[in-house]
Design brief:
Number of domains: 1
Distance between the termini: 28 Å
Shape: elongated
Helix content: 40-55%
Strand order of the largest sheet: 1-2-3-4-5
Order of helices and strands: HHHEEEEE
Number of strands: 5
Number of helices: 3
Largest sheet: 5 strands, antiparallel
Strand content: 15-25%
Structural class: alpha+beta
Radius of gyration: 20 Å
């Protein structure tokens, strides 16, 4: 199984300011990735004519965009790795959903935090997700 780091509610909540920064970075990088992919797709469609393929400026542009896309993906993965190093699990970068392993009533569960929430106050079973989260009692 994964290398599991267990959190207290307070310990998980203390990470929120740092996690908000990471989540925002991931959102921005993801948007750049999507924009770059659209640029590449557009260039490839425009270049997809019946003309013989020659190495021209549009191919050079596609190559440059692909290299930039790869750098963005690497940057996304670096930020994701920073989250993982904290012992957290990013579940959804768009919503900013992050889970933390926690022991509740002698059972391993996930504390669940969503970007914008001021503290960690929800949990759910490991097999279930965000839609089944419940307020910690």
């Amino acid at each position: 199984m994964l290398n599991m780091k267990f959190f207290s509610i307070e310990g998980a909540s203390e990470l929120i300011p740092q996690l908000e920064v990471y989540v925002e970075k991931l959102r921005k990088i993801k948007n750049k990735i999507l924009q770059k992919q659209i640029q590449i797709d557009t260039l490839l469609m425009v270049g997809g004519t019946a003309e013989p393929i020659t190495y021209d400026s549009s191919q050079a542009s596609v190559q440059k965009d692909v290299e930039e896309l790869n750098l963005l993906i690497e940057e996304f993965n670096r930020v994701l790795e920073e989250i993982n190093k904290l012992g957290c699990q990013l579940k959804d970068p768009d919503l900013g959903l992050i889970d933390f392993f926690y022991i509740h009533n002698d059972k391993i569960v996930n504390l669940c935090w969503k970007s914008g929430e001021s503290k960690v106050e929800f949990l759910h079973d490991l097999e279930k997700g965000y839609t089944s989260r419940q307020k910690i009692s």
